Amino acid sequence: MITAAPPPLTRRAFLAGTAGLVTLAGCAADPAPTAPAATRPVTHPLGTADVPLAPRRVVSLDSNGALQVGLEVGAPLVASETLDGAVTVPGYLPQPPPGFTSLGFDQLDLERIAALAPDLVIGNVQRVEPAYPELSRIAPTVAYENAGAGQDWRDAVRTIGDVLGARDRIDARLAEYAARVEAVAARHAATIAGSSVALLRFTGSELRIVRGEIFGASILAHAGIRRPPSTDTPGGSATYVSLGEETVGVTADADVLLYFVGGGGSARDAADTAQRYLSGGLWAQLPAVQAGRVVELDPVAWWDGYSVSAALACVDELDAALARP
Predict the structure, then answer these.
(1) What is the pLDDT of residues 239-257, one digit of tens each?
(2) Which end of the chain, N or C, is less surrounded by CB atoms within 10 Å?
(3) Is the pTM of this model over 0.70?
């Protein structure tokens, strides 16, 4: 069951009561005395944590990687941040286990986390770092780098799988993904060789060319998709290029346009943005639009995805898009 998160607690109030909360939460979760769990040291970007070899109560502070990989490998997730929007847990994943609690989106509530009595907390660096000392008092806490820090999503997924004690399973899933990408690339080799593809995202305020280490863009790169020159602006490390209604014409060098509407915390009003651009005169003049080589994609998989399951969903959509005449 997914429940709504209450208003977050201030850090000052949390620091005043952390010890008591942890003690009470631990008693509520398991009143019988138990032997100390076997652990192993895990070094991560924020320090070192003694992680249980077989965690039993995992809290994820990431609605992308940790949540998705956790569900993918059947980790004992008691709670996690979830996606913002109509879809809180992607449909391409196994459903959360019974008793699972949603922590909302970008709402760090330290008191609530302590009350869940986790034996492992995991999340990306951006989410964990501001409260790492407090979280480490609650349970062993591990942070990992994601695409926002330029990390290849496959490496991040391996790291998460390793922390959760499921590295072998993740390696097998990644091998499955690699084979699937290779098959799609071979099937559409002529189309890929003769076409350039731009991946676009409509946000609540603008249109963006998606590129770099961002999840969806990396899927295209793995399949050998060639980007048009317009996506190389403004530089090699940028993850997106903003396009105003008057500059959408720069994508005229793309033979195929793949786009999705929304995704992430800035998804609000994205449909209105898309309608504004898609009904504009400049959009209608784009060669890919006139040739009918424009395909709308699932924003949950292409933007919010961060797992092998998400990648396979993207490859399926890419396969269908490349098969269109």
Answers:
(1) 888 899 999 999 999 999 9
(2) C
(3) yes
19 and 155 in a common domain? yes
Dist CA 47 CA 44 (whole Å)? 5
Same domain as 128, residue 184: no
- Cα separation values, 234 from 151, 165, 209, 242, 259, Å: 20, 40, 11, 10, 20
Residue 1: inside a domain: no
For the stretch 143-148, contacts whose Cβ atoms lie closer than 8 Å and that sit 24 or more positions apart, written own/partner, are 143/44, 143/45, 143/46, 144/44, 144/45, 144/65, 144/66, 145/45, 146/62, 146/64, 146/65, 146/306, 147/212, 147/213, 147/214, 147/215, 147/218, 147/239, 147/306, 148/124
Please give the torsion angle defined by the CA atoms of residues 243, 248, 251 and 253, in that order, rounded to the nearest 10 degrees.
-140
Q: What would the mean pLDDT of 183-206 be, rounded to a whole number?
A: 95
- The tens digit of pLDDT for each residue in 271-280 reads 999 999 999 8
Length, in residues, of the chain = 325
